[in-house]
């Protein structure tokens, strides 16, 4: 059985008080509402990691993640944060290759290979993002485009390392736009990606890989998306900033 995962991506939002308030609400609701069998990950900006971890404590199945890490282990890289630092501050997951990082910070598939390596070397689980822009979807070449992102960044991994990866499919045209992929579009891509992973790492490994959907996922559409055979949860942006919405998504399996 693969894990059901809902990860919240705060992006560059919330000051200290707002972050503490949101986390406290989520932790309390999470405990009160008896969530079972869902792994929940909060991915705040770096400066929030430590105080958010303090509030999460050892709540079972509720984890801390970051939105990025350096491709370097340590050294003179001003402004960067290493995977080993993140781990030492209590992070268990790291989002890598988000389309905003690819677009605004020019992160290439090659750079992401190095980031994935760092994450794995220091015991973080990468939530590896992939997804196509609108023009690629309209040209009908989206499957090949997204498969290539996986091939170039992940296919050099050993089977043992690959088994630690979580994939997040996020069509760029659906991120923050209010325009969600239909559950059939999500399922079609997730199935194609799972087949692609199976061709390299074997069917069993592919069957154990959680593939999350991201892009305007909200309490109104999560149930439909999560009902699909190859959709194992969500990477949630905007709706993860509202505790009730985020919890309702978590409860949508
Ligand atoms: P969104 O963002 O839910 O606000 O569309 C998803 C993401 O970018 O991870």
What features would you describe in this structure?
- The protein contains twelve helices and eight strands.
- With 253 residues, it is an alpha/beta fold.
- The chain has a single domain, classed as Alpha-Beta Barrel (TIM Barrel).
- The longest helix has 19 residues, at 183-201.
- It binds 2-phosphoglycolic acid.
- Residues 9, 170, 175-176, 214-217, 235-239 line the site of 2-phosphoglycolic acid.
- This is Triosephosphate isomerase.
- Keywords: Cytoplasm, Gluconeogenesis, Glycolysis, Isomerase.
- InterPro entries: Aldolase_TIM, TIM_sf, TrioseP_Isoase_bac/euk, Triosephosphate_isomerase, Triosephosphate_isomerase_AS.
- Involved in the gluconeogenesis. Catalyzes stereospecifically the conversion of dihydroxyacetone phosphate (DHAP) to D-glyceraldehyde-3-phosphate (G3P).
For the sheet with most strands, the description reads: 8 strands, parallel, barrel
CATH-scheme architecture = Alpha-Beta Barrel
Distance between the termini: 14 Å
Classify the helix fraction into a percent range. Answer: 40-55%
Radius of gyration, in angstroms, nearest whole number: 17 Å
**How would you state the average pLDDT, rounded?**
97
CATH class: Alpha Beta
Low-confidence sequence ranges? none
Q: What's the domain count?
A: 1
Strand content range: 15-25%
Binding site for substrate: 9-11, 176, 216, 237-238
Family: Belongs to the triosephosphate isomerase family.
Catalytic activity: D-glyceraldehyde 3-phosphate = dihydroxyacetone phosphate
Subunit structure: Homodimer.
């Amino acid at each position: 059985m693969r894990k059901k995962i809902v990860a919240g991506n705060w992006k560059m939002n919330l000051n200290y008080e707002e972050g503490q308030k949101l986390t406290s609400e989520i932790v309390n609701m999470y405990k009160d509402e008896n969530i079972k069998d869902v792994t929940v990950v909060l991915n705040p900006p770096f400066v929030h990691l430590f105080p958010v971890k303090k509030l999460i404590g050892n709540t079972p199945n509720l984890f801390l993640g970051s939105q990025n890490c350096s491709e370097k282990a340590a050294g003179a890289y001003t402004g960067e944060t290493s995977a080993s630092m993140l781990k030492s501050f209590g992070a268990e997951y790291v989002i890598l290759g988000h389309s905003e990082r690819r677009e605004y910070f020019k992160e290439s598939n090659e750079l992401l290979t190095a980031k994935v390596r760092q994450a794995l070397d220091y015991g973080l689980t990468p939530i590896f993002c992939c997804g196509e822009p609108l023009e690629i979807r309209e040209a009908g070449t989206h499957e090949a485009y997204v498969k290539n992102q996986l091939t170039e960044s992940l296919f050099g991994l050993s089977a043992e390392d690959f088994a630690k990866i979580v994939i997040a499919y996020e069509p760029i045209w659906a991120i923050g736009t209010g325009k969600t992929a239909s559950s059939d579009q999500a399922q079609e891509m997730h199935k194609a990606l799972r087949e692609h992973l199976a061709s390299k790492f074997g069917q069993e490994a592919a069957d154990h890989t959680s593939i999350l959907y991201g892009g305007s996922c909200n309490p109104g559409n999560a149930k439909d998306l999560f009902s699909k055979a190859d959709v194992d949860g969500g990477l949630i942006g905007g709706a993860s900033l509202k505790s009730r919405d985020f919890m309702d998504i978590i409860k949508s399996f």
